[in-house]
Design a protein that fits this description.
The protein is an alpha/beta fold and 303 residues long. It contains twelve helices and nine strands.
């Protein structure tokens, strides 16, 4: 991934919000001083199957995160007035077609999140190309045409951006620092500390330890505190980030309440542009001179 200038990204991405888009000259629409996308990753059993975390004795197709948490999330977003981006594994087209159509019909963006949550940073070029093509074809069956991609695991390969262009994608949302236009693909990064998995997911224990936190999962109050700090920092630095939630991790009243409070804060934040990834990507690609820098890809992973 040297061609993507990732050599030092791991170290710089770990030190926190001071690294998230500190260019004060970057201008966002309508006089906004910062920008943010609310995003959701994964749907149903796809990731658990791919990671070997699924109990094979359980039936496929009735995951509570889809049947209970997703509908509640859509109601929450509607009440607050936020349009989000849902990155979905295309495997779900056959398992949860109605859920994907429900997301799209509610006005939210559906992005591509691999076929079944493959560890994207370990794929070869042929497999990448095949999965991009297969995923697009599957989602078109539901009338969905994804233009954005978030790599499962957060990392890209040297071939990813070129293959994305060939497949008709317009933007990518990997782990990183700054939004950028890289070879005609908009980069809309997320930072590990701004996702719910960092606080709640057991496999992130080593990452939490490396960043000075407890290896044990952290309480919802900590997520709420840190994400609100993130929002305040974006406005003060004219920054951008995507914040990221997972339905299976929000299946808890306290966690869901903390997420709700964060989203309320995002919606009410003064001079902050909250938009789905596709709209932010369109803006970045329309203003290439403002987004010509290095996105600072983060090579940290958790797989």
């Amino acid at each position: 991934m040297d061609s993507l200038n990732q050599s030092d990204a791991c170290d710089t991405a770990q030190v926190g919000i001071g690294n998230i888009m500190t260019n004060p000259n970057t201008k966002w629409p309508n006089g906004s001083r910062g920008a943010i996308s609310v995003t959701f990753d994964n749907l149903g059993e796809a990731a658990e199957l791919e990671l070997g975390m699924w109990d094979t004795n359980r039936p496929i197709g009735s995951h509570r995160s889809v049947t209970a948490v997703l509908p509640e999330t859509l109601r929450l977003l509607d009440r607050i007035g936020i349009t989000a981006t849902f990155f979905v594994e295309a495997w779900n087209v056959d398992i949860y077609p109605d859920a994907i159509k429900r997301i799209a019909s509610a006005g939210h963006e559906v992005g591509f999140h691999g076929w079944r949550h493959e560890n994207w940073g370990n794929l070869d070029e042929s497999t990448e190309s095949s999965l991009f093509r297969r995923g697009k074809e599957a989602m078109r069956q539901l009338g969905v045409e994804p233009v954005g991609f978030r790599p499962p695991g957060g990392k890209l390969n040297r071939t990813t951006l070129n293959l994305m262009k060939e497949s008709g994608f317009e933007y990518c949302s990997p782990a990183g620092i700054d939004p950028a236009d890289v070879r005609g693909i908009a980069i809309l990064p997320f930072a590990w500390q701004w996702i719910d998995a960092y606080y709640y997911f057991e496999p992130f224990a080593e990452m939490r330890k490396q960043r000075g936190d407890s290896e044990s999962v952290l309480p919802p109050s900590r997520l709420r505190e840190e994400m609100i700090r993130c929002v305040d920092g974006l406005v003060s630095r004219a920054g951008y980030t995507a914040i990221l939630f997972h339905h299976f991790l929000e299946d808890d009243p306290e966690r869901f309440a903390a997420m709700s409070e964060v989203l309320e804060y995002v919606k009410q934040a003064d001079k902050l542009w909250c938009a789905p990834c596709r709209e932010v990507a369109d803006w970045i690609l329309s203003e290439p001179n403002d987004f010509a820098g290095d996105p600072g890809f983060d090579t940290t992973g958790w797989h």
